[in-house]
Amino acid sequence: MNLSSDTPDASREAAEWAAKHGAAFVTGGVMVPAPTVGGRGAYVFYSGPRDVFALHEPALKVIGEPKYLGGDPGLAQLFYQAHLDVFLTALSSLLHATALVTAAGVPAAEFLPGALETLTGIPTMIGDGLQLARELEAGEHPGDLSTALMMGATADHILRTSTQTGVDIELPTAVKSHYDRTIAAGHGTKNWTALYEVIKAGR
């Protein structure tokens, strides 16, 4: 049972090594900070041989709610990294936005409470994720409420403001790049979710 963080491929390689030595390998991704392990709301992703996971599941429940993903030993780390992708990017955006405001002489305390409301308000915009998932998988990006062109203009404004105030521009540059490439690919009048087509294609 490996609960350390690594890439999905590293977990698969470790599972192959374990199998060659007569051992089974189950990967886990702990999704809460250390102080809350074993507490309410704690959960852990697992992947690897189902029978081995099932054998140890009662003990694993002490750590947090076990969420078994399948036999591929890389899946637990894939889900772990994907969730942390959302988490780390959100934290960087929060700090970047705060730097943008404080560069104008505004105290962080006057900005951060409202900024956190913006973060927690995202589920109101996209719901529980199931409808968004269906649209992404179907390649449907209706632009009736917002478009990549409109959101891209905002991304440009954020980058220009960041440049003018002297704060770091790496994050807004990356965001603007997503919109620029989405528009260039002919998705400008589609919803912001059309960025997914560019991101998943790696172009």
From TrEMBL:
This is NADPH-dependent reductive aminase-like C-terminal domain-containing protein. InterPro entries: 6PGD_dom2, RedAm-like_C. Residues 72-200 form the NADPH-dependent reductive aminase-like C-terminal domain. It holds the Pfam family RedAm-like_C. Gene3D superfamilies: N-(1-d-carboxylethyl)-l-norvaline Dehydrogenase, domain 2, NAD(P)-binding Rossmann-like Domain. Signal peptide: none annotated. It comes from the Bacteria.
